[in-house]
Structure formats: structure tokens, C-alpha cells
Amino acid sequence: MMRLSARHEAIVSQVTPGAKVLDVGTDHGFVAIALVKRGIASYVCASDVNEGPLWRAQENMELYGVDFPLYLADGIIDVPIDNIDTIIIAGMGGELIAEILSKRDLADRKLILCPHTKAHELRKSRIHIEKEVLVEDGGRLYPIICATQGDNGIENEADFYISPHLREDPLFPEWVQRELKKIDQIIRFVSRGTQADAAMKKQLWYKGELEKYANLRRDS
Q1: Do strands 70-72 and 43-48 pair parallel, antiparallel, or not at all (unpaired)?
Q2: What is the pTM of this model?
Q3: What is the mean pLDDT of residues 55-77?
Q4: Hey, is 55 helix, strand or coil?
Q5: Of residues 220, 212, 203, 14, the one with CA closest to residue 113
Q6: 30-37 and 6-13 are packed helices; what angle lies between their axes, rounded to 10 degrees?
């Protein structure tokens, strides 16, 4: 029986039954395989920029008795998507995900995104977020973002860093505390200098924004 990580389970849970899915950066292919094995998606294909992950995905497809197209491709370039209505991109930094999405017109397609780092950079890009949840996996908290391509509609700078869609999530208070700890570590080790001062100023601003929610937690 195939067992997924908590992060992969959270991604799979956001796929609409009957969807036609492209899994970008498929790595071992586990998400795509689960979508086929569980009968969630009506069509699945997957891509990766490197041959190694595709070989592993092929081996896992044979192991679990499924078959779907695999593409050696840079993001979604050169992958046929005319019949695709859902695109999954996970396991990368927010900046790279944003870059991948910027290279094609993805109008009317559901985007399921899981940035490992710099989620704020992804929120700043041309995506309109419809839903965002947190999942804990391997001692880390990851945002799962469901969106479409378009104007992000965000006007407040702090909302790129502290997503309004996450503020009612059960894990949000824990996320705030972990972010504050990370910032304290960064501040402790930042050296002095012009660039360091600018970085310090940004971190202190972010800490102040986070503390608004930490204080609300203590007051409630």
C-alpha cells in the first residue's frame, strides 16, 4: 500500500475529483501516482527538469501498477497542457515557482502550489489566491496555496508575508511562533554594515508585524 507524507496528502486533498492534472517537478512521482491509484484524477501527467527524478518516477509507476506520460521539461515549457485543468508545483522555492508560472498563459486552470521557501515572493506574483492552508511535515510547516493566474489583489505589504488566508488556520499561531524564532536567530547573527543594516531593518519590520498576531494569541 502506498503511503504519502503529510505534505503530499495535503496536496492530493486539494485536487478536485475528475481533474486533469500536470504535476510539475514530480521527483519520485508519488503525488501523481496517488491521484491515479485513488481514482481522484481523470488524467495525470508529470514533468521534471532532470532525468534522474523521471527514472525514479517510472520505477515507482511500475511498482504501483500505473502508467501516465512523463516529460523531461523545464517547468511547463514544452509540456502539452491543452487538456490540463489543474497544475501542481511543489518542492521548490517561491521565486522559482513564480518564474515557472510566468512562462505560460494558464488562464482558468487551478494552481496547487507548495513553496518550501519564500512563499511571500510567490504571493507577490501573478496569482490570485483562493485558499491557503498549513500542513506540518517532518518538523516544518508548509503553506499549500490554491490559486488561479491573475492579479494578486494584495495591497498591504505585510499580507505577502503573513497571508490573510492563513490567519484562521489551526496551525497559524504555531507558524507565527516559529517565524519569530527564526527572525530572532537571523537578527542575532547579522553583521553590521550598510547591507546588513538594510537586512536588519527588514527583519525588525517583519518581527513587528508577526508580533501583532502573537499578542492577539496571548490576549485571547
Answers
A1: parallel
A2: 0.93
A3: 95
A4: helix
A5: 14
A6: 50
Closest CA to 14 of 92, 78, 68, 88: 88
Provide the pairing of β-strand 140-149 with 110-117. Answer: antiparallel
Query: Do 116 and 209 fall into the same domain?
Result: no
pLDDT band at 218 (very low <50, low <70, confident <90, very high): very low
Q: Is residue 160 part of a domain?
A: no
195 has a pLDDT exceeding 80: no
| Type of residue numbered 66 | V
Same-domain status, 192 and 94: no
Question: pLDDT tens for residues 5-15?
Answer: 999 999 999 99
Could you tell me the three cell numbers for 117? 521557501
CA distances (Å), 72 to each of 5, 48, 109, 118, in order? 25, 5, 22, 26
